[in-house]
Amino acid sequence: MTHATAPKRDFTRFERDTPNELWQMDFKGDFALDAGGRCHPFGVIDDYSRYSLSLVACANQRTNTVKGHLTSAFIQYGLPAALLMDNGSPWGTRGANRGPR
């Protein structure tokens, strides 16, 4: 039996029309530190320009840590119309009506 393959599609760049229309944010994994503990790199990019608005080394992925770094970005660059993140920790819920850590 022969399986048909889907035709290749041209690459379409995903981007918004104006700066601050959409920011994407995510933790970029984590790694152990020689002195103990872990580092959780946190990044925020503007979807229009692909400019890195924030890239910081965090000791954790907790709500107050994220709020602090986002507040700094808001002060420096203004407020985005929308934020995009995946459903992973800390953005996803941990049970009925429970938000991030």
Description:
With 101 residues, the chain is of the alpha+beta class. It has a domain at 23-83. The protein has one helix and five strands, in the order ββββαβ. The chain is extended, with a radius of gyration of 18 Å. The model is unreliable at 96-101 (pLDDT under 50).
Briefly summarize what is shown.
With 101 residues, the chain is α+β, with helices and mostly antiparallel strands. The protein has one helix at residues 63-77; strands at residues 23-27, 31-32, 38-46, 52-58, 83-84. The longest helix has 15 residues, at 63-77.
Low-confidence stretches: 96-101
What radius of gyration results from the CA coordinates? 18 Å
Cα distance spanning the termini:
51 Å
Which percent band covers the strand fraction? 15-25%
Q: Tell me roughly what share of residues is in helical segments.
A: 10-25%
* Structural class estimated from helices and strands: alpha+beta
N to C succession of SSEs: EEEEHE
Shape: extended
Overall pLDDT level: 85
Largest sheet: 5 strands, mixed
Number of helical segments with 4 or more residues: 1
E-strand count: 5
Q: Helix and strand layout, with pairings?
A:
Layout: E1 23-27, E2 31-32, E3 38-46, E4 52-58, H1 63-77, E5 83-84
Parallel strand pairs: 1-5
Antiparallel strand pairs: 1-3, 2-3, 3-4
Entry keywords:
25% strand, 1 helix, alpha+beta, 101 residues, 5 strands, disordered C terminus, five-stranded mixed sheet
